[in-house]
Write a structure and sequence with these properties.
By secondary structure, this protein is α+β, with helices and mostly antiparallel strands. Helix content is 53%, strand content 10%. The strands form three sheets. A four-stranded mixed sheet has the order 8-4-3-10, with no helix packed on it. A hairpin with a 4-residue loop joins strand 3 and strand 4. The longest helix has 29 residues. The relative contact order is 0.05. The N terminus is likely disordered.
Amino acid sequence: HPVRPDSYVEINNFYTVTIYEKGAEVVRMMHNLVGRDGFARGMKLYFERHDGQAVTCDDFAGAIADANPDSDLARLLPQFKHWYSQAGTPRVRATGQYDAAARTYTLTLAQSCAPTPGQATKEPFVIPVELGLLAQDGSALPLQWPGEDAPGAASRTVVLSESSVQLTFVNVDEAPVPSLLRGFSAPVVLDVDYTDAELLTLLAHDSDAFNRWEAGQRLALRIAINTIADSAIQTGATGQIDQQILPDSFVQAMRAVLRHPQLDAAFKELALALPSETYIAEQLEVVDPQRIHAVREAMRLQLATALQADWQWAYEQHQHSGAYRPDAASAGRRALAGMALHMLCLAAQHTGDAVWPGKALQRFKDAGNMTDRFNALNALVGSGHALAAPALARFHAQFKDEPLVLDKWFALQAGACDRGGQVLAQVKQLMNHPDFSLKNPNRARSVIFSYCNANPGAFHRADAAGYVFWSERVIELDAINPQVAARLARALDRWKKLAEPWRSGAREAIARVAARPDLSNDVREVVTRALADE
């Protein structure tokens, strides 16, 4: 997976170690520091020592290090354990300087970690950084350290264990574009001031899938944030932006990714997806949810229309993969075909063309597997086409006795793009559906959480109706399932970042919940903390 590191490491097809969240990333770093063969030796020693025992993270790290006594992990093991003992996510700041006369490139890496309660000062972490250098045309530059007789590989891993380190590469014929943290080699926040041109180079040419994806996300995020701040770009009477937001260079880069003959279909589907509204909001000091929604939808529509012929090519090339197979390649083809169909329906809805919505409905009817069927349904619902209604009815009739499938049916409608404020009314209607029960946690999540937590453009209404709905559901759920209610209550954790009138509306809704005398301790803790330190 090019976006998220593996959550497991398989050794000799027999043993599988699964450590979730931060633990998975720390295990991955151990693997990077000792290599695949070294990690296999460490796993063998770990099972010999501890099979059937209750062990700690220290035991696991010690086994990997002891099996590789000459490795960086063994040399820096006490310091490496800062990953377990220190809270927070480290930041790595990267700056580069090219000396044309000396034909050298100096890369400076500096790490830091913000203070956390009880840990005002953080010791340096052990951070493996896999890196490479790209020429302006995208070709990989061989890496050569001072004192080496010949260039080495085009990708190397360096270990950042001090506060900062300077790396000098020699015989560099032009100013390079650094490709850092390849393969997400460490779970850190990377700060580097790439230009738009450098990001386009990485997006078009980097051999590392993670960095290629990251470059596209950084560039799309930069465009979105700049557009949000640009007062000259206004929304129309319908709340939409009619101007072209994406520069031609970005559109052409997306076309190149989509048409690339060697790139994996699953990667293309990920690389062509825009940053979510929630992620964009996290990067802003003051959040106007409707502005974010309008900007992202304008970007999405522009990609749909500008690349219409390319989406058609992608759909036709990937829609048929023979009999259903669950392998990764087939799953990637289905994902890309589904995305292409969605974008084609979005463009058709904008132009008034009935051809592609009709094809989506036919695909929905003829699909031989659930993924293709649901992708077609999603294309119709996501584009807001009238054919979505009969397709939804047909889907319900087919799968009304399959609870998990029906959860997806509910969630799709509650998470649909809001066009004119219709989603809240739809959510209320879904709650009156015979198959909906607030006492069923999965069904409650499929409707209420999909709306309040995963659909910011519909939830953050200027009239505060979404917040009123949220407060009523939190109170209602608290009497049935306080744990589920507490998780729903966290939907407004970041209300203080909202611009007006959303901020006042959210604050009033939270206060309304907090004023209830019969709240559970779970919910009271969440809303009390949310209102603290105003």
